[in-house]
Structures are given as C-alpha cells and as structure tokens.
C-alpha cells in the first residue's frame, strides 16, 4: 500500500511549491495556532499532536521551516518498538529548553532522548564541528555524531560506521535541509556542506539495511507576503522545491521496493 505524504502547513511555505502534487498527499492545517515558531508550549504541542493523529496516518511528513523541527518529537512519540533516530542536521538540537513547559527547534532531540522510552540511540550526520560542545554529558552515551568535515572521507567507510553504530532494526529518519550545501537548498539558518547526492547514497543504504518506520523533512526558507514575489525568493523556493522533489521521489521508490520485497518474503 502506497504511503501518503503529509504536509504541515504552519507558514504557507508548501503552498508555493509543487513537488508533492503527483503523489497522494494531505494537508494538516496549523497556521491558526499561535506561538509555534521556534518555541512551542507543551500544551500547544498536544494540540498539534491531536491534529496529526486525527489525520490519515502517513509515513512521510514535511514540516515546513526548521523552526518547526520539534514536531519530529511528536511524530516519534507513538513508536511502539525500539528504534534509532538518524538525524541529518547542521545542528544537534540538544540544547536545554528555556523552560520545562516549552519545547524548541533547538531542544527537541534532548527532550526525545529524555522522554521517549523506545528511542535507544541518535546518529547525527553533518553537524557543525562544534557539535560536541552542544551535547550534554547526560546523553553522550546515546549519541554518535559525524561532523561535516568528517564526511569528506571515504563514503563507504562513513556508511559502514553508521550501520555499525545503530543497535536497532528500526530507524526513524529526520532531515533538516540546513545540513546541505547552499547550492542544494537554502533555509533561514547557517548551512553545512553535505551535497544532496551524498545524502541520497546514505539514505539508500539505510533503506536497504534497516526498517525505516518514518521520515520527516524540514528546512524551508521563510517566505512572507512582503518578500514572496522578489526574484531572489522565487529562486530559493524553486531550489527547495527541486530538492524536495528529488528526496520525495527516491524515498517513495525505496519504500515501495522494500514493501514489495517484504510481501514476496511472506507470500
């Protein structure tokens, strides 16, 4: 059965794109919710969770700007079996939240490790060189990171290292496009140097060797009514639309092949 694509509409960013229109997709409307950018009260997070749960269950989620990356925590909260998080991101997102009542785009991985019992390990790929400074001692034994400079070495060795680290059969993949080189995507944050082709090779190996139980993508450029018609902004939207199209096309292809293979095994 083909999985549909869910588009979270916090900021209207996907209304300017077309990459999803050739696939089954659904909108989850969240624009009316206040105070959700960057920081989110946990009571509001419950409302977001209820909105997502109330929709038809999807496997692939597009979250919008990286300001809403914390929604990945919600998407993983109902996983019922041990799994590892594979995080493609230029930031670790393990900073302490400013309050116990808040979750943020910079704290959600730390919150997930502290509150999601099925999450066993996190593998961060493409983080900045100062990543070790942002990982609290309390979770060091649950985190492996590959910095952007380390990704310049042999890709086969890198992929083997990732697979050797993952202790679970199941993985959840979360992608923030700020991990990519600016030639492949543009976000509202500082960027890494990973190329899209490099990311696709790593993703392909993960799909071949692991049970991918969910995937989300964020990292849209913030577009407002005052800038959406500027030539530069239209170019950025086009670039991100193209990258989203490539990611979605390959992910759905790998999911389809894995599903067919599993059906053959159980025929």
From TrEMBL:
Gene3D superfamilies: Ureohydrolase domain. PROSITE patterns: ARGINASE_2. InterPro entries: Ureohydrolase, Ureohydrolase_dom_sf. It comes from the Bacteria. It holds the Pfam family Arginase. Belongs to the arginase family. This is Arginase. It comes from Oceanobacillus caeni.
